[in-house]
User: Fold this.
Amino acid sequence: MKISIKREQNQTGLSFAEREKFRPKVKQIRLWMLAAILVICGTSIIIGCKSSKDKAEVAVSPTDDNSQFVMLTDVVPDVILEIRYYGTYNFVGARIDGYEEPTALLTKQAADSLKAVSDDVMAQGYRLKIYDAYRPQKGVDHFVRWAQDVADTTMKPYFYPDLDKSVLFEQEYIYERSGHTRGSTVDLTLFDMATEKELDMGGTFDWFGPESHPDYKGITPEQFEHRMILRRAMLAHGFKPLDTEWWHFTLKDEPFPDTYFTFPVKQLNK
Assistant:
């Protein structure tokens, strides 16, 4: 014990009794310091969370970088293109903003997977027919403006005869953002090489109604099987379906899940 006291005296310059006198004050000071550290750390955590949120918001900012996209026909030469939003036969009744040429663009990863789908259905006697692929954000904005103009019902008899146009947002037919704008979503059907006609899917592309749901029961067994041929091939090669549109598929491991692209649909100059 004497040795211990001696060491402490040598290190602090205070006697044992003197140090015992100051011990409560030291303990209080330590508590104050701990409280200050907790406040600082808590502030840092809050700031850190806010920074992460800000970074997430930056991650979904639009970009016009098309360097990771390809012309679909370069990767899948057997596809048939019928780009509906380049023409006027669509639910808007006009060419959609951002569609400068009747071509289809996709991310490299989505195009490679679609090539595997094409090889699959070709072996069964079919070809893929593409209605839409990458869609620029200005195209989505065009849809939104059209939906807000409830007086414009030019194409109602062809695409939404049973719906009041005022419910398109409420019933989620039109969104301010689209998976197509991320570059790995495609709308398509099957073309029968024997009959040289599209397979009868029991409903038209872009029909606003339950008839477009993949599992809709009001179609014939043959029409339902046609939908399933397409669905099985897409799912087998890495795509996931949408439960409200039989023609709509997105690459499951899409490379840009939080990015919305803005460059127009046209031939890529590389």
Remarks:
- The CA atoms of residues 134 and 183 lie 5 Å apart.
- The helical segments are 2-12, 16-59, 72-75, 108-122, 137-148, 156-159, 221-236.
- The first helix runs from residue 2 to 12.
